[in-house]
Amino acid sequence: MLRSLVRSVQSACTLHLHSKTHTAPLIRTTVCRALFTQYEYEDNTILKKPSLAASARISSHASQIGNETDSDYVPYRADLETGSRMSVLVKELRERFRLTENEVQRIVGDDQVQRFHRNRCLIQTLDILLLEGVTKQSFVEYPWLLALDHKRLELKLKLIKTMKMQDINHFVPFLRLTIPRLRKLVSTLNAETGDLSQKNRVYYISEKLGVRPEIVTKYLSKRLFILEMPYDMFEKNLQHMIHYNVSPINILKDLWAFRYTPKSVELRLERAQRAKKDKIMPWMVRCPEPILQRSLKLSLDELQVLGQFTSVVEYLAHRLGFSVSEAKAIMDRHPQVHTVRVTKIKEVLDYLLNEAKFTRFEIAQVPRILCHSLKTTQKRMEELASYGCRPSTLVILCRSRREYDKFLQQWTDQHRKKQQESAD
Description:
Layout: H1 2-15, H2 24-36, E1 40-42, E2 45-47, H3 52-65, H4 86-96, H5 101-108, H6 111-116, H7 122-131, H8 136-141, H9 150-160, H10 179-191, H11 201-209, H12 213-220, H13 225-228, H14 231-243, H15 248-253, H16 262-274, H17 283-286, H18 289-306, H19 312-320, H20 324-332, H21 342-355, H22 360-365, H23 374-386, H24 395-398, H25 401-423
Antiparallel strand pairs: 1-2
Helix pairs in contact: 1-2, 9-10, 14-16, 19-20
């Protein structure tokens, strides 16, 4: 229909072409715009779109009248904040506890506290936990306690209090668990209470290792399988580690060894003891066989080097001809020497005393040489010897590559200058 109307108008324009030639384009354009444009017309005047600034004013006015949407910008208003201001939180903490500046910074600098202090009332959480008996040490050790949700926190506290416990602070790390996970854990611990002389497995581990319960739960909260694995398997592995003198803190730091069968745990620990390992570690239970064999071989080699001596200090005193106290004083000048294997110390001393012909006093003046790479020491000595240089001290052999190259350049320049002077 519109096309027919356009054609009729165009025909009319053609008929009046001779009489009104100069008005035809204007009429055609005006008619076409009137039919197909989105603009409105009033009294033959084109009403243009409002400008961009005007549109912004209209939309701003409309947004103030209408409801806010997700895409609208909402400026920050302090009076609408429901959380705890950081300054108020710090003030409340100082009123309740005697905290050092480092302890305050540890609490307020926690990621969870920084994340939730604006939309959660951390002071209310603080008061809830204080009423339950949570101490200052727990807040300093676990600052995220302040960021826990109130409703979930109350449910978690009720679950924990169903256990036979001596102090709520012993189980504070478990408050970070989800409610279903905590409910399952509490149910497991309560189910085996009758089989233990202690109140639950946490106190059993604490008594056997001689470690405070709060330290036990600090590590067990990261490895919950220890509290849920079969009791017989857990007890046998624990007895094996205690029998072979594994350090209690090393047991708690590396709990993965408990996943292995008691027979394999006992076999690995026995092999380590037969190799005269001075410090048996839980990783020896779970490491691959080649790594264990290499570790045991190094221990046997060290025993062979030490011979009749019981420590590296005694061995060094014997090799350099000093008393034990003097040898200890020499090693204390560079404490890293105490961590060097005696097999490496033997190799370095053999080279310096027998091949490089340094005296025991020169070695005692620079104990750092015992920590330095023997390969690098040999390479530098050969390089210096090729230029006719025998260093008066071992210090230059221990310097960085840049300092050593600088010394070598100075030496070669002086040596070349002397040769030129002698030639003249």
